[in-house]
């Protein structure tokens, strides 16, 4: 229809485009779709040009390595809670295998299949309405996924298996996807904004009264994710974008998000402002005042609203947009990645065994051993210095095999499989290797015109055999440990002296995007946050639980912004990742095996 599309796989060309974020911005239709999830065009995901540059500079403070370290106790607390819920499930296999929940009977499933997730006529969605083929929804309160007919119906205790229940080693089938999504939603709420979604707790207690913000998000996500022919037509015919409709539920959800955002800002404003004043007075004070400026996301946002220098100031609207942007960008990406990692481990028992051995070789400090381990600091004022366990958390981050597993999983299961850019002017894109065009002519560059849409196939690049070798599509964490440095160096140059790997933000991959601070850095600002969260969750979950999968089940990737799993033979059940979990008894020998 007259549009031109370019899909780049040449690493030199990919690097060229991705490192010029402002010359090659996101196309309007991509921004529109992101804006519908992130409540507007003034958040970091959707802002462009100078507004983006300013925001990125301000927000970087909240994602520095030191700041992210201070969130580790929050990651730990949520991971422990999830582990305990799952351990409780494994302790009650009888209830697990009793199909007591009416929602999971075949009749109930049929009823559910008829439920339309479109919230057009309702202001609030019933939880079951959200558990449909579109939504593996953490917001959807606790309704067992249609794929988990064996959910326990017992109310679980807060602790690991009690002494009265003989711990079972029989595996239980569990859809891990919504559980992980809930855990990561709780994490980003607490770490980013000191907001308690309590979505894990609500699920564990089978309550439906989740937080107001979670319900509002459910509506927004349900609408944003729904596939509509109109959305596709709007990509090709921009004039149709003037006919966007917003239903009443969506309007109310957006208003709720705004209201809660304002409340969060109000609650924290006083502390932040008094901190700022104290620090300003410090220059004149004689006593060494220990006040330091909070660098957590909400504090950074609030301070920017009162900044006097325009290049450091964000409007109230920009701040409110960031809250929804970070909630949207920061939770399902991590949970998708954790879900796929558990899947990869379930499919590769030897890797899982080796990983568990490494994890168990690092003992948990006795002060953290309690099942009720709670964060050592308040989410609202994370402070690295105050955390007595930061050394332990740091050692988790450095575990080599855990690192290799995470890298390999983010390579093969990139949560964001493709990104898009649009050429804003005539340009010539260099390539690493000449190519032959459709007229049979050899080309050493690619000429683009304004408006040309460029796709960057992140996942395909991650499986490029030129870069990763003939086993590019095999899950093999060892590729990151054996002679990793040499391999990376080799990739950079390639056998014939050309660059075969992309220069992404992380690990010769575009999994977290790429960018250049001068020409536009659109890479993932939360990558340290995500890596740290993923590693802590894996450390806690894989130490004590074994994950397996029914070999007869074929899992497929379904992509709708993010990559989500589906069971091929059960498309009507929507997104799910049914795994079998089993408690792994402590095994001293296990640890020895790793050391040898
Ligand atoms: C495994 C987890 C994650 C993956 C794979 C991931 C991936 C990405 C990618 C590929 C981009 C660039 C998109 C593009 O250029 O089109 C991006 C941007 C972004 N990510 Fe992430 N992300 C993850 C986790 C997070 C987390 C935890 C947060 C926040 C706490 C976050 C916040 C953002 C934001 C705000 C942007 C926009 C940055 C900008 O345009 O300046 N992400 N992410």
Automatic annotation (TrEMBL):
Gene3D superfamilies: Cytochrome P450 (1.10.630.10). InterPro entries: Cyt_P450, Cyt_P450_E_grp-I, Cyt_P450_sf, Cytochrome_P450_monoxygenase. Heme binds at residue 524. GO terms for molecular function: heme binding; iron ion binding; monooxygenase activity; oxidoreductase activity, acting on paired donors, with incorporation or reduction of molecular oxygen. Residues 366-387 are annotated as: Disordered. Its cofactor is heme. The keyword Oxidoreductase applies. It comes from the Eukaryota. Pathway: Secondary metabolite biosynthesis. Keywords: Heme, Iron, Metal-binding, Monooxygenase, Oxidoreductase. The keyword Phosphoprotein does not apply. Residues 366-383 have a biased composition (Polar residues). Belongs to the cytochrome P450 family. This is Cytochrome P450. It comes from Trametes cubensis. The lineage of its organism: Eukaryota, Fungi, Dikarya, Basidiomycota, Agaricomycotina.
């Amino acid at each position: 229809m007259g549009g031109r599309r370019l899909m780049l796989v040449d690493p030199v060309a990919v690097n060229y485009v991705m490192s010029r974020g402002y010359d090659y911005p996101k196309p309007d239709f991509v921004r529109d779709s992101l804006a519908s999830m992130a409540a507007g065009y003034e958040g970091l995901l959707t802002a462009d040009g100078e507004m983006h540059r300013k925001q990125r500079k301000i927000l970087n403070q909240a994602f520095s390595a030191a700041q992210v370290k201070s969130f580790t106790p929050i990651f730990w607390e949520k991971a422990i809670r999830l582990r305990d819920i799952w351990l409780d499930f494994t302790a009650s296999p009888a209830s697990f295998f009793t199909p007591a929940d009416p929602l999971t009977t075949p009749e109930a499933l049929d009823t559910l299949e008829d439920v339309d997730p479109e919230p057009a006529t309702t202001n609030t969605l019933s939880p079951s309405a959200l558990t449909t083929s579109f939504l593996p929804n953490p917001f959807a309160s606790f309704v067992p996924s249609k794929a988990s007919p064996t959910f326990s119906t017992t109310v679980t205790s807060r602790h690991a298996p009690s002494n009265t229940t003989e711990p079972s080693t029989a595996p239980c089938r569990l859809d891990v996807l919504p559980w992980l999504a809930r855990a990561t939603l709780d994490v980003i709420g607490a770490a980013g904004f000191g907001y308690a979604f309590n979505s894990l707790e609500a699920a564990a207690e089978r309550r439906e009264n989740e937080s107001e913000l979670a319900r509002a998000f459910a509506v927004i996500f349900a609408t944003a994710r729904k596939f509509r022919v109109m959305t596709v037509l709007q990509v090709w015919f921009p004039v149709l974008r003037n006919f966007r409709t917003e239903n009443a539920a969506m309007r109310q959800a957006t208003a709720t998000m705004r209201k809660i955002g304002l409340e969060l800002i109000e609650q924290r404003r006083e502390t932040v402002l008094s901190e700022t004043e104290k620090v300003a007075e410090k220059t004149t004070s004689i006593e060494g005042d220990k006040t330091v400026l909070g660098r957590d996301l909400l504090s950074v946002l609030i301070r920017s609203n009162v900044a006097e220098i325009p290049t450091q100031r964000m409007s109230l609207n920009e701040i409110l947009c960031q809250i929804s942007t970070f909630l949207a960008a920061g939770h399902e990406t991590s949970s998708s990645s954790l879900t796929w990692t558990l899947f990869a481990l379930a499919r590769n028992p030897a890797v899982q065994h080796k990983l568990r051995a490494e994890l168990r070789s690092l003992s948990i400090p006795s002060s953290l051993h309690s099942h009720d381990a709670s964060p050592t600091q308040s989410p609202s004022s994370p402070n690295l210095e105050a955390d007595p366990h930061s050394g332990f958390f740091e050692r988790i981050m450095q575990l080599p095999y855990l690192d290799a597993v995470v890298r390999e999983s983010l390579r093969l299961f990139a949560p964001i499989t493709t990104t898009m850019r649009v050429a804003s002017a005539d340009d010539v894109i260099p390539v690493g290797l000449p190519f032959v065009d459709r007229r049979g002519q050899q080309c050493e560059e690619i000429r683009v015109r304004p408006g040309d849409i460029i796709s960057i196939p992140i996942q395909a690049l991650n499986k490029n055999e030129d870069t990763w070798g003939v086993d590019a599509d095999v899950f093999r964490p060892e590729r990151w440990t054996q002679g990793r440095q040499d391999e990376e160096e080799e990739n950079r140059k390639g056998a014939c002296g050309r660059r075969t790997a992309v220069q992404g933000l992380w690990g010769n991959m575009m999994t977290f995007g790429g960018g250049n601070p001068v020409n536009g850095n659109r890479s993932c600002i939360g990558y340290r946050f995500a890596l740290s969260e993923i590693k802590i969750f894996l450390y806690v979950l894989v130490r004590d639980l074994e994950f397996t999968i029914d070999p007869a089940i074929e899992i497929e990737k379904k992509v709708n912004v993010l990559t989500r799993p589906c069971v091929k033979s059960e498309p009507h059940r929507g997104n799910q990742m049914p795994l079998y979990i089993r408690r792994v008894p402590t095994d001293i020998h296990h640890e020895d095996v790793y050391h040898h």
